[in-house]
Amino acid sequence: MTTAVATGSRARRRRVELPPWQLLGPTVVVALVALAPIWYLVDQALDRGWGPAIEEVAQRRTVDLVVRSTALAGFVTLATVLVGAAAAWIVARSDLPGRRVLRVAFAMPLAVPSYLSAFAWVSWDPSIAGFWGAALVLVATSYPYVYLPVVAALGRIDPAQEEIARSLGWGEGRIAVGLTLRQARPAVLAGALLVAQYAYMDFGAVATMRYEAFTWVVYGAYRAGFNPTRAALLSVVLVAVSIVLVTAEGIARGRVDASRVGGGAARRGRPVRLGRATGPAAVFVVVVLGVALAFPVVSVVSWSLWRGGEAVAFGEVFSALWATVGVSAIAALVTAVAALPVGLLASRYRGWIARRLEQATYVAHTLPGVVLAISMVYVGVRLLRPVYQELPVLALAYVVAFLPLLVGSVRAAIEAVPERLEDIARSLGTSRSGAWWRVTLPAARPGIAAGTALVFLATMKELPITLLLRPTGTETLATRLWGHTTLSDYSAAAPFALTLLVVAAVPTALLSGLLLVRGREDGGHVG
Amino acid sequence: MSHRPSARAAAAVFALLAAALAACGGSSSSESNSASATASTIDDTAATPTGTITVYSGRTEKLVKPVIDRFTAATGVTVELRAGDSGALAAQILTEGKASPADVFFSQDAGALGAVADAGLLRTLPAKGLLDVVDPAYRATDGTWVGTSGRVRVLVVNPTLAPNPPKTIDDLLAPAWKGRLGYAPTNASWQSFVTALRVLRGEEGAKTWLTAFAAQQPKAYEKNGAVRDAVDKGEIAIGLVNHYYLYEKIAAGGAAKVVAKNVYLAPGDPGGLVNVAGAAVLASSDNAVAAQAFVRFLLNEESQSYFATTTFEYPLRTGVPQASDLPTLASLRPPKIDLADLESIEKTQELLASVGLLTK
Fold first, then answer.
1. Range of the domain at B92
2. Which residues between 19 and 58 in chain B have a beta carbon less than 8 angstroms from any beta carbon of chain A?
3. Whole-angstrom Cα distance, residue B238 to residue B216?
4. B164 and B259, same structural domain?
5. Would you list the DSSP string of B171-183?
6. How far is it, in rounded angstroms, from Cα B339 to Cα B148?
7. pTM of the model as a whole
8. For B160-208, what is each residue's pLDDT tens digit?
9. Residue A96's domain spans which residues?
10. Which ipTM did the prediction report?
11. Do residue A483 and residue B95 have CB atoms under 8 angstroms apart?
12. Do the chains contact at A392 and B5, CB–CB below 8 Å?
């Protein structure tokens, strides 16, 4: 039996010494880039000095906003953990028919932009607006952030402990919650952190649902108040929230990394028979997929019927598709390259420096898109004027925005590769970086690829950064969709929205496919 | 798409690092806040416009592109169009300061233009043949921007449900209309109307009206088009929208199928506010001649007729007729207001939120 809830043993193996410069150098560069928005925010926030800044922030209204946003983020995080974990358990452990299809289907709502989903709901029934409407949309669009890592983790966790518990007379419910999902805790936490940050920074859902959250007010400060200083000050508060979240996740993750310590692979256990619970489980599946996937898709399809069959501008759709794929691929690859040193450092080294460098890449992740966009406008126009509103600055902005999605995946993937493999490679005469390059990274490839797909997906749906920083003339599916919906021309918007949904489904399927393959490989071995 | 973008991005990363380190030494003072606009105007008609200009447009590409194509055909000037949200583009210009690549800012509303003008980033436009072809009510008093088309706030009514529709916003507060009104809380034109209400009646007066309006339990819709459709279908009796939504529906489905009618408010009533889209030339423009020629082009008779017929907005060049069945702007006698005062939309949003008309 090789499963171990490895308290300490692995963690202690992480090196406390200073990482080599080949790793430290790039990581420092990436961390600095990720902190670029902070440079802008501080500079802009203190535009009129400390006094007015403190006065602006220390208002009752700011406290109210923190409370309102925290209520929303708290509820959404909790609900996504429940939905995501339940979906993962059904797919990975139960005998519900059609699990193979469900494994991919449960990830699919990632392809639905929050603004699309929110708009679909509000057009259907305007009275849904408010806290619950915003919460519904945020849960529906972000639970895959929990579902995916948990499904992957459950594929890795050896079922032996569950079998022992069963032999001791534990009920299946108690095993699922008290043992199986407990072992997946780091995966749950990593997903929960992303969701919490997402719930703080998302604009589409809260704006359409008219829930007065932080992002909404920050957008208002730019777009209605024309007051970048106020927007920056409020954003600094969001950064503080982000630091709290990142720190809390770090503490909760602790040193408990539920992974097997080498020696063969987890085998696949016998699926749990649902019996009388089959009905409720099926209802759960239908409700989740209906709300998160079917409803928005059906309503987009219905748009095309609104004005009775105008000719679809296929040329425009096609060129927008190409631009979207091109820009997203570049963003994903550059972000992957940037995330590698950070993930490697975070998974193989401990200590103050390693931890802070990793956290630095996460800090900007609670910043709303428009703030990141304006930050990169500020940075780009001052430091990178020749390539401002060209591909390099746009790519850099995406890196800053989406790095956390990849750093987490890379770290988790590398942590799952036993360090002993590196030791063996080194004992055979390979250098440490050679061992990383030839042993660790290839083994971690599926996880890294999944993270890359996640960034690809996020870039496809992104709007504010794209609008302000794209090369002139570049129109993506998201910008076209925006252009038509601002004119309330939904029949013209429909082909772009549909194409976006369909094309976004590809990396999503890839994402779950990468995890599926790993699960099968694992299952193939007998531990 | 350029070659080897990742290599260029990597170079960019290092440039950023170097500069970030340099910036740690001494934060550069912001150079964007020089107080006044460029006072001296240039005469673009004396020079031949050439080269390229960049237009930041809060109006969508679909609407602006045909005008741009005609401008390029007429002058040879290449136009790089960057369409986006007017407010976000204003924030972008404010952040770029004097380094802005933009030559022209074409905005959906006057508020965004006013904000950029206040930062001293706009050039004063010449009066002759440019500012003076537009009624002074629809351009900046300091000449930094000029309105290019107008839209009137109206009541869109269902004649069956509201045979004797109100003529003032205060009539909307009658008990008969309770639960039968509709509006689009996040719509910029609605918020501009409330801003005008604040300017015309003061904060207290505006709050009084809004509180009474909220007590009417108006139905909130996502967009103006949805308000109009609800009126047309008879879900509600009256909607507060812009005048052209009705004409969009007529153009799409034919007049015979549309039940709803526009009702224009009494002269001087705040509900009949005229909002404008407008254009300005940036003080930092390195091709001000062509930029100014472009703004001038937006005001020529051909472009003005184009806006009038495609968007059913009011042309603002004196003498260009509006779409056939619209009343003239002069006959409507809209409330007198300095459009630059419509800049304080954020305060409006706070007020709307406080009376429960914006957020939930």
1. 52-150+276-326
2. 19-20, 23, 27-28, 30, 54
3. 12
4. yes
5. GGGSGGGTT-EEE
6. 13
7. 0.85
8. 999 999 999 999 999 999 999 999 988 888 999 999 999 999 999 999 9
9. 24-259+272-521
10. 0.84
11. no
12. yes
